[in-house]
Inverse folding.
């Protein structure tokens, strides 16, 4: 059931809702300024202790923040915050440890944690300033880190609450080296409470700052986290950590992996480390709903693009739990003892809605209405929240039943239009356009450009065909190549062969520079025939499905071209292909030899009037151009694009490392450099293992041998 607050939003939504800005937190007293004041005071009086002045000024700023925020001042112990910060500073005075003060420092840490936790729970606008002021005190973060490494869970908890939605403090804590030290201690400790506290801090760091991910990854901690997820715990730590009583190490480790999974740069390493299987197991069997939701979102982020992956199929109870959590997050309420993040839940749902079975479950349990609530509201990282919610709605709109629900939900279509009109993000614009298009509201997208001159400038033929007679227009129709980005180089070979045979072609090369959907529509409308380049990733792509189904709606002749050996499309793509004759072009080397059959099937559709083979011409476009205006990439590996490098990995049976190579920005030039590194056998083996996560000797030897075949 939707909350009453949500229902009120649905019924009262306006095209341009006013936004009431939150009261901004007071600016923190900068440490540089504190140092300057201390220097000035100390220079005038030789008896003044500079470090004492620093501490007093820093703690005074914290105390001032507490007094200025009644909600924070109400926290137990808040009136003595200055005294507790002074205790920590004394414990770690001038960089040396005063062990006798450790019990007092632990007690002070507990109070500081309570005060900041209270600010989090009451959503105090002074939270961020309070966190920064505590971290920027004269002793800095070192006393808390020292207490943590001495085995005090409360210090880890205090560090975590200082991280909460504050990327700056996250980076300061990570830069102090605690992650690398935890990587050593975590697998060794037998204390369940301490282990949970460590994982809780790691969750906070990973959740609130992507910049900390490099510390976690480079510390070598991922295999430990995966191993902890496999542990079947009998005696979970009964410790309250962030309002999650009784949360064990397995659940905590899964939460860290989930937050790492939201960053696509980490996907290759996480998948290679076996994270998907252990998380899927938690998703299926764990009793705790929060743990199941975390695991489901992580699995969706890692393999959500794989529509047929059985690990992505949810049971209805989990769908209900996820949607209830998202509804609570939109209201800013806790659920299962946690404040959830809207954009991260939406990212998981956007991936899960690729699966047709999940589409049905989500739509049947008020998922569309709750996703609409995301669009109506303002959230942390609002742009991402809107983009992922729109992506989920786009996927859902591919089913007729969901389309009707989306259109009939009060204010929802207007919300999509409003975001399209106001967002500054090109990615969000394209997703909003896709959702509207799939809803059958193509005119909403087209009207953005009609009358402005932009449409004609973005389409093949340069918009010059409007005044042509029907006979001339027929002669300028093209063969459209509809494909998924990973097959681009093979599709370009097909395009070149068609050019030689005298056909006018249309192929999207660089995603239209922001006008993709409009350009696609006109390309379909002006095509004589559409070649659908079939692959697994084509079936999983929202944009490709939109393109193919629009061609079908326009009653265009569709010729399937199979780009992936032994792939048998099912679902919507299988239905689209039906009993159509298809041509296999899965081996790029065989494309020229297989073209005669395809050309025979094409006949004169899309062939330039009066042209002979090798004499084709056609109009160009911004990003989408005719065959004559595209220069084919060189066969030399040094000039390969990132996509060509990925295709090479697939050909040499190393497709599992595509993500790692993509993360390291490996194009042809970089691949050539890797080949030259192979002159030093030890160095190349170490590089392949550490940078590309090639664990076995066989994997490394295969790549080295293939590099020599490629470049020698």
């Amino acid at each position: 059931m939707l909350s009453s607050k949500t229902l009120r939003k649905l019924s009262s939504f306006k095209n341009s809702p006013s936004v009431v800005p939150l009261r901004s937190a007071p600016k923190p007293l900068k440490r540089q300024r504190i140092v300057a004041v201390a220097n000035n005071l100390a220079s005038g009086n030789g008896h003044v202790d500079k470090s004492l002045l620093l501490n007093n000024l820093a703690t005074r700023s914290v105390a001032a923040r507490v007094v200025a925020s009644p909600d924070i001042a109400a926290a137990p112990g808040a009136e003595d915050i200055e005294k507790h910060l002074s205790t920590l500073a004394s414990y770690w005075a001038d960089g040396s440890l005063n062990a006798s003060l450790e019990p007092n420092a632990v007690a002070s840490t507990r109070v500081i944690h309570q005060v900041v936790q209270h600010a989090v729970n009451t959503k105090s606008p002074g939270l961020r300033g309070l966190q920064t002021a505590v971290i920027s005190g004269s002793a800095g973060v070192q006393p808390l880190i020292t207490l943590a490494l001495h085995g005090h869970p409360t210090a880890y908890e205090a560090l975590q609450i200082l991280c909460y939605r504050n990327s700056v403090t996250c980076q300061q804590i990570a830069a102090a080296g605690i992650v690398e030290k935890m990587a050593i201690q975590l697998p060794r400790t037998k204390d369940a409470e301490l282990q949970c506290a460590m994982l809780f801090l790691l969750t906070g760091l990973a959740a609130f700052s992507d910049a900390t991910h490099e510390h976690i990854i480079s510390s070598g901690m991922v295999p430990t986290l995966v191993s902890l997820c496999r542990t079947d715990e009998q005696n979970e730590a009964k410790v309250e950590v962030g309002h999650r009583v009784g949360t064990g190490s397995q659940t905590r480790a899964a939460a860290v992996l989930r937050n790492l999974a939201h960053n696509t740069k980490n996907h290759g390493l996480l998948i290679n480390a076996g994270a998907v299987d252990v998380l899927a197991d938690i998703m299926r069997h764990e009793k705790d709903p929060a743990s199941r939701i975390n695991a489901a979102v992580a699995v969706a982020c890692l393999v959500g693009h794989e529509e047929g992956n059985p690990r992505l199929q949810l049971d209805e109870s989990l769908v209900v739990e996820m949607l209830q959590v998202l509804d609570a997050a939109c209201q800013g309420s806790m659920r299962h003892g946690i404040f959830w993040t809207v954009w991260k839940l939406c990212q998981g749902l956007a991936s899960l809605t690729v699966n047709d079975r999940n589409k049905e479950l989500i739509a049947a349990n008020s998922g569309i209405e709750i996703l609409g609530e995301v669009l109506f509201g303002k959230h942390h990282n609002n742009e991402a929240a809107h983009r992922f919610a729109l992506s989920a709605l786009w996927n859902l709109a591919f089913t007729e039943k969901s389309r009707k629900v989306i259109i009939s939900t009060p204010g929802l279509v207007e919300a999509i239009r409003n975001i399209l009109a106001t967002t500054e993000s090109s990615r969000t614009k394209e997703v909003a356009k896709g959702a509207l298009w799939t809803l059958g509201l193509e005119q909403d997208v087209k009207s953005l450009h009609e009358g402005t001159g932009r449409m004609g400038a973005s389409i093949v033929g340069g918009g010059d065909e409007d005044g042509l007679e029907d006979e001339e227009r027929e002669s300028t129709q093209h063969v459209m190549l509809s494909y998924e980005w990973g097959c681009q180089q093979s599709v370009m070979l097909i395009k070149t062969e068609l050019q030689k045979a005298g056909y006018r072609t249309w192929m999207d090369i660089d995603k239209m520079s922001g006008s993709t959907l409009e350009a696609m529509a006109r390309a379909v409308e002006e095509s004589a025939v559409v070649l659908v380049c079939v692959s697994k990733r084509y079936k999983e792509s929202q944009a490709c499905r939109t393109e193919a189904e629009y061609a079908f709606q326009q009653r265009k002749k569709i010729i399937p071209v199979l780009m992936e050996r032994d792939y048998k499309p099912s679902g919507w793509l299988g239905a689209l292909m039906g009993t159509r004759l298809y041509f296999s072009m899965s081996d790029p080397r065989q494309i020229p030899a297989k073209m005669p059959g395809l050309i025979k099937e094409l006949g004169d559709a899309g062939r330039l009037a009066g042209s002979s083979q090798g004499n084709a011409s056609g109009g160009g476009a911004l990003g989408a151009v005719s065959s004559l205006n595209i220069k084919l990439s060189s066969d030399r590996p040094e000039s390969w694009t990132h996509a060509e490098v990925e295709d090479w990995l697939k050909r040499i049976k190393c497709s599992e490392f595509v993500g790692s190579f993509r993360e390291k920005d490996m194009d042809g030039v970089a691949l050539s450099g890797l080949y030259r590194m192979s002159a030093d056998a030890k160095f190349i083996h170490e590089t392949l293992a550490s940078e590309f996560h090639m664990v076995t000797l066989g994997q490394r030897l295969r790549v080295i041998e293939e590099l020599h075949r490629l470049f020698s």
Remarks:
- The mean pLDDT is 79.
